[in-house]
Amino acid sequence: MNGGGGRRRYSSEQLLFDVPANAGADRWAPQQRGGVRRGDGEIFVLVEPTTPARLRGGDSPGQRQQLSPGLLDLHAFDTELIPDFQVPGMYDGAQKFGYGGGLDDPDMSFAANKQISKSTIFPQNNYLMAFPENAKAAPVAKIKVVVCFYSFAPQLLINILLLAYLKCHNLPNFNSFDVTCRMQVRKRPLNKKEISKKEEDIIDIEQRSNSLTVHETKLKVDLTEYVEKHEFVFDAVLDEDVSNDEVYRETVEPVVSAIFNRTKATCFAYGQTGSGKTYTMRPLPLKASQDILRLMHHTYRNQGFQLFVSFFEIYGGKLFDLLNDRSKLCMREDGKQKVCIVGLQEYRVSDVETIKELIEKGSATRSTGTTGANEESSRSHAILQLAIKRRVDGNDSKPPRPVGKLSFIDLAGSERGADTTDNDKQTRSPFILTYFLPPTPLVWSNS
Ligand SMILES: Nc1ncnc2c1ncn2[C@@H]1O[C@H](COP(=O)(O)OP(=O)(O)OP(=O)(O)O)[C@@H](O)[C@H]1O
């Protein structure tokens, strides 16, 4: 057996950005924008902020055009977040973990009028550290995260959970936001079909070093077999015996309290058909709702917070409301160049049972099909959003203002057509994937 391949690291440190919202139109050059681009086309992360309209005084009309919003702007309808306020106990976590930084900290400061600020590195497993106590609120800038992960082995039995975590800061003369991405991998066990076909388990997990090794069988020119090893390091690797509860504790639980304080977090699962995306994602929103309601009823009691649920899918380039009889939704751009999902129903919820019913109803309505790798394959991108809103000054006559949001995105399989059978053209061409970058990128857009 020959060893080969290399070690690649996918970690939060590489995926942290401080990006000025007023960066120029040339910001797609990642080096200039503080973005990260890995070699060999393996991972490619870009962040594109868009300056809010009122801050664009100096832009020419041409430049303004280039600041147009993303294709999938899931949050466009709530870009005006509620003004900042202090939630008691919000930063306890940061203090507990010895967080000493902040905007006064030279290592974390943003120099006014500089195009790119210094990157901040936050220790792993403590999302709250990302938010200095004295950070002020800002209009939300637009952000895109683009991740390409080229699976070199078609039988790669893993899925990737990527948790992106955002927060805006408003600084004198300078608007910026931090993005924390956390990439985790969960391996699923061999299924009955694979066992009966005596397929080999090609992945070894090393939990202590957060790494996994893929053993790829290859052929030499003389047709003798050899195995090439590829080692990857992530923020966390979850072995096949890890339960869904543990996945929740590792990925989502740490960010739940942050959405009470002007934060948007998104957790999405990326992987090919049958890799376990839906199995992994399905329990997460309900567990998160339980924690959110617990916080609303205890820690943040009587502070006017409300929880709203919405659930829709993108299938064949069209949007459907999964909580409203699959009614067709439209994505439109308004006068402020914000993309809105017109007609999406949001339900106010205050107990776990109602949320459970809504999630089950939406999941049952989702488009499914059969692929060679999964008999019950989700053929769409499903987006479930838990939005926290709050009445301003307890005023009941005005609609509640968004405070934060937790989104769960169960993507359609990322497989190439050649990797599975029984795949028709429509299911192979998820809206987001085909529109933006070739050949199999995953594009997530937020604002
Ligand atoms: N960690 C796991 N432990 C046990 N069974 C799993 C695990 N992950 C996935 N499975 C099983 O594998 C099958 C496929 O999983 P799932 O439907 O979640 O895949 P998927 O990635 O969502 O596929 P698709 O993209 O086709 O929808 C299911 O029967 C599921 O129960």
TrEMBL record:
<comment type="similarity">
    <text>Belongs to the TRAFAC class myosin-kinesin ATPase superfamily. Kinesin family. KIN-13 subfamily.</text>
</comment>
<dbReference type="InterPro" id="IPR019821">
    <property type="entry name" value="Kinesin_motor_CS"/>
</dbReference>
<keyword id="KW-0493">Microtubule</keyword>
<dbReference type="GO" id="GO:0005874">
    <property type="term" value="C:microtubule"/>
</dbReference>
<dbReference type="InterPro" id="IPR027640">
    <property type="entry name" value="Kinesin-like_fam"/>
</dbReference>
<dbReference type="InterPro" id="IPR027417">
    <property type="entry name" value="P-loop_NTPase"/>
</dbReference>
<dbReference type="GO" id="GO:0007018">
    <property type="term" value="P:microtubule-based movement"/>
</dbReference>
<dbReference type="GO" id="GO:1903338">
    <property type="term" value="P:regulation of cell wall organization or biogenesis"/>
</dbReference>
<keyword id="KW-0067">ATP-binding</keyword>
<dbReference type="InterPro" id="IPR001752">
    <property type="entry name" value="Kinesin_motor_dom"/>
</dbReference>
<dbReference type="GO" id="GO:0007019">
    <property type="term" value="P:microtubule depolymerization"/>
</dbReference>
<feature type="domain" description="Kinesin motor">
    <location>
        <begin position="180"/>
        <end position="447"/>
    </location>
</feature>
<dbReference type="InterPro" id="IPR036961">
    <property type="entry name" value="Kinesin_motor_dom_sf"/>
</dbReference>
<keyword id="KW-0547">Nucleotide-binding</keyword>
<dbReference type="GO" id="GO:0008017">
    <property type="term" value="F:microtubule binding"/>
</dbReference>
<dbReference type="Pfam" id="PF00225">
    <property type="entry name" value="Kinesin"/>
</dbReference>
<dbReference type="GO" id="GO:0005524">
    <property type="term" value="F:ATP binding"/>
</dbReference>
<protein>
    <recommendedName>
        <fullName>Kinesin-like protein</fullName>
    </recommendedName>
</protein>
<dbReference type="GO" id="GO:0003777">
    <property type="term" value="F:microtubule motor activity"/>
</dbReference>
<feature type="binding site">
    <location>
        <begin position="271"/>
        <end position="278"/>
    </location>
    <ligand>
        <name>ATP</name>
    </ligand>
</feature>
<keyword id="KW-0505">Motor protein</keyword>
